[in-house]
Write a structure and sequence with these properties.
Belongs to the universal stress protein A family. It comes from Pseudomonas aestuarii. It is a single chain. Helices cover about 40% and strands about 20% of the residues. With about 280 residues, the chain is α/β, with parallel strands linked by helices. It has two domains: about 100 residues, HUPs (Rossmann fold, 3-Layer(aba) Sandwich); about 150 residues, Rossmann fold. A ten-stranded mixed beta sheet has the order 3-2-1-4-5-10-9-6-7-8, sandwiched between helices. The relative contact order is 0.14.
Length: about 280
């Protein structure tokens, strides 16, 4: 039985996340799920307490409506304090399999994504996080898994399948082969045989890693493209019309928390599709 924790700030963005979670619960034939909202406690205690009660009533009404639609009533958790620690503790308390969040508020500056609540939740979560940016009009029909050649990448894809987010028969696996540094090599000096050899090696590594993990895909679903990762992924999303992107986040040595790399951060800030971010196993 799948266990979902859905963070809501009561905005339309969060409504998309709740709708997607409801679809997942319905698809799984039921499950254990919780709607969580955190009230800022930087206000008089009586005001915070009344605000908590008001939000509880609102979410209880929504939970009842969801129970009638889905057949499974979500729990409601409303607390006050710091958002991220409360949500992480709630996830641990219910042994959640997945944290579902809405998208960040759109801004004109991409770099403002860094430091948003969504970014901090993804960065600090030890659970897979599904960032929902689009209305959940239907189940995901096609997914794109953007994988590097690390064990964590294959783990991310396996997690997506176990969570019911990815169908191996309707999935494209993409590896972006980093280009030669621009400005250092001209077209005439690039040995394209080297590029072809690297692409073949990467494809073989992908095939072997996926097969070893029990994730058998048709060869036609595996692609290696040369170029900057962000550009290659965006182009592949456009061509495949995938509604879900699966990526792995990585732990950096010496840091106690997971950190988003520049590519993952840029993808989350720029892309309008739903994105599943999977942290390293364990």
């Amino acid at each position: 039985m799948i266990k979902l924790l859905v963070a809501t700030d009561l905005s339309q963005r969060s409504t998309h996340a709740i709708e997607r979670a409801a679809r997942l619960i319905r698809k799984q034939g039921g499950g254990d799920w919780t709607l969580v909202h955190v009230v800022d406690d930087d206000a008089p205690q009586d005001f915070v307490a009344e605000h908590v009660r008001r939000i509880e009533r609102l979410l209880d009404e929504q939970a009842q409506q969801l129970a009638e639609q889905v057949g499974s009533r979500p729990r409601v958790l409303v607390s006050s304090g710091e958002i991220e620690p409360i949500i992480f503790e709630a996830g641990l308390g219910m042994a959640a399999d997945l944290l579902v969040v809405g998208s960040h508020r759109k801004t004109a500056l991409r770099d403002l994504f860094l430091g948003t609540t969504v970014e901090r939740l993804i960065r600090g979560s030890h659970l897979p996080v599904l960032r929902v940016a689009q209305p959940a009009a239907a189940d995901y029909q096609h997914a794109l898994a953007a994988l590097d050649l690390s064990p964590g990448a294959v783990h991310a894809m396996g997690s997506a399948q176990r969570l019911g987010l990815l169908d191996l028969q309707r999935c494209t696996v993409l590896h972006a082969l980093a280009p030669f540094p621009r400005g250092k090599l001209t077209e005439a000096t690039i040995d394209h045989r080297v590029l072809e050899s690297q692409a073949k090696d990467a494809l073989l590594t992908l095939q072997t890693s996926l097969q070893d993990a029990g994730l058998a895909l048709p060869d036609s679903s595996l692609r290696v493209r040369e170029g900057e990762p962000g550009e290659v992924i965006a182009q592949e999303l456009l061509e495949t019309q995938a509604e879900l992107l699966v990526i792995a986040t990585h732990a950096r040595k010496g840091l106690p928390r997971l950190m988003l790399g520049s590519v993952a951060g840029a993808l989350l800030a720029e892309l309008s599709c739903d994105i599943l971010c999977v942290p390293p196993q364990g």
